[in-house]
Design goal:
The chain is α/β, with parallel strands linked by helices and 412 residues long. It has three domains: 2-197, EAL domain (TIM Barrel); 200-279, no CATH class; 291-404, no CATH class. The protein has 17 helices and nine strands. It has helices spanning 37-50, 69-73, 97-108, 143-152, 170-178, 204-214, 221-229, 232-250, 260-279, 291-310, 316-324, 328-332, 336-340, 347-355, 361-371, 375-385, 389-404, and strands at residues 2-12, 17-25, 62-67, 85-89, 112-115, 133-137, 161-165, 183-185, 193-198. An eight-stranded mixed β-barrel has the order 1-2-3-4-5-6-7-8. Helix 10 runs antiparallel to helix 11. The radius of gyration is 24 Å and the shape is elongated.
């Protein structure tokens, strides 16, 4: 399965690339599909911010994301990394009290706010102190109207970045640069470029059950944790989601040694419901092969069982994570080091997956050797960690039975 996104570069006066606008696509066709704006934005968030990294590990470029009114009111924008994202308020949003409160809240959380396709006038005056960027569609709004507005409001705009979009000629670029614009976007510089990549696919049954569980009157945290643990996609997404929330509320880049239950408790039911809105509702697509997810689940349970038998350090949860995420590089075709940088896992988990070292590595190594029928090597690892050789098959059978009993609705 693949995700698609178009990126259009944004330039400064010296024609340096300073960011990109992300535009939702559902194929390599470079056009917006015929779907509601709310659906496009939530699916873009799920695919580009939760399923896999927005960019490569060292890519810290700013990205602009369009948000319709309702998603801003619901706080969905606040689930994104505030240090990377500029929130674009769409032009058809009603500038009412609810939206102003949402913009103020995001501003105080450290988000940068942009007004998209801005029409000169006074309807947005109350918002300007909390707005970082104003985008003028120069193909739709006359130059004279733009110039008059900037001249009349120069004082209140003194801290606001002006961005000219739909720039198609060098003459337009020079004109608006002289008018005092700071940023530029349009076909003259760069057309949107569509990219395609692998994405995590989640189990429809678990996603539906998770949606149901978080919306009951008294959600059961044990059930929520169990549902998350049984799906590699949901586990990865909730950890990335929690990391974004933690950064936005406390300015912390990551938190370590947290179990899935800890994350559920930390987020709370209200935030879990928002996670479900973003991560589950947008991901129900047909899948023809779930073998790799099935194997991830077996590895996760096997590592957990082995740790319970052999470790005195109470690291069963970390052992489960090592097995669960051990095939992410295969699923997403990205190095594990890059993927681990997108979520907050303990150093032990990171070492096991990135460097094949540490106390947790023998657990997943044993699982791999068993899968490859390398019996002598598997026996040696079992002996090294204090696991009776006879227990290897026993625990693998338990793990396989556990995975087989999950309601996997898609064919393997």
């Amino acid at each position: 399965m693949y995700s698609f996104v178009a990126r259009q570069a944004i330039f400064d006066k010296q024609l340096n690339t300073v960011g990109y606008e992300l535009l939702f696509r559902n194929s390599m066709d470079n056009r917006f599909p015929d779907i509601p704006a709310e659906q496009a934005t939530t699916q873009l968030i799920e695919e580009q911010f939760l399923s896999a990294p927005v960019g490569r590990k060292n890519d810290n470029s700013t990205v602009y994301v369009n948000f319709p009114y309702q998603l801003l009111i619901e706080g969905v924008a606040e689930t994104l990394p505030s240090n990377r994202v500029v929130i674009e308020v769409l032009e058809d949003a009603e500038p009412d009290k609810k939206l102003l409160e949402a913009v103020k809240r995001m501003h105080h959380m450290g988000f940068r706010i942009a007004l998209d396709d801005f029409e000169p006038g006074h309807q947005w005056d109350a918002f300007i102190p909390y707005v970082n960027v104003i985008k003028f569609d120069i193909g739709r709004t006359p130059r004279e109207a733009i110039g008059d507005y900037i001249l009349a409001n120069r004082e209140i705009l003194r801290h606001t970045v002006l961005l000219a979009e739909k720039v198609e000629t060098y003459e337009e670029f020079e004109y608006f640069k002289k008018l005092g614009f700071h940023l530029f976007q349009g076909y003259f510089f760069s057309k949107p470029v569509v990219t395609k990549r692998n994405k995590l696919v989640q189990n429809r049954a678990f996603a539906l059950k998770l949606m149901q569980e978080v919306n009951v009157e008294s959600p059961n945290l044990n059930k929520i944790e169990e549902l998350l643990k049984r799906d590699v996609s949901l586990s990865f997404k909730i950890m990335r989601y929690a990391q974004n929330i933690l950064y936005n509320t406390r300015g912390i880049n990551g938190f370590r040694n947290q179990s899935l239950r800890d994350i559920v408790v930390y987020l709370g039911i209200s935030e879990m419901r928002r996670f479900v809105l973003v991560a589950c509702l947008t991901s129900f697509e047909d899948v023809t092969n779930t073998e790799i997810y099935y194997l991830s689940l077996i590895r996760a349970k096997f590592c957990e069982l082995v740790a319970a038998r052999t470790s005195a350090n109470n690291n069963n949860n970390d052992a489960f994570m090592v097995g669960l995420f051990s095939l992410l590089d295969v699923i997403l075709n990205l190095p594990l080091a890059e993927l681990m940088a997108q979520i907050a896992v303990s150093p032990d988990v990171a070492n096991a997956l990135e460097t094949d070292s540490g106390e947790l590595f023998p657990y997943v190594h044993l699982a791999r050797l068993y899968e490859q029928r390398m019996w002598d090597e598997a026996n040696a690892v079992a002996e090294q960690i204090g696991l009776p050789i006879s227990a290897i098959s026993e625990l693998m059978n338990q793990a396989t039975k556990w995975a087989d009993e999950l309601p996997i609705t898609l064919s393997r």
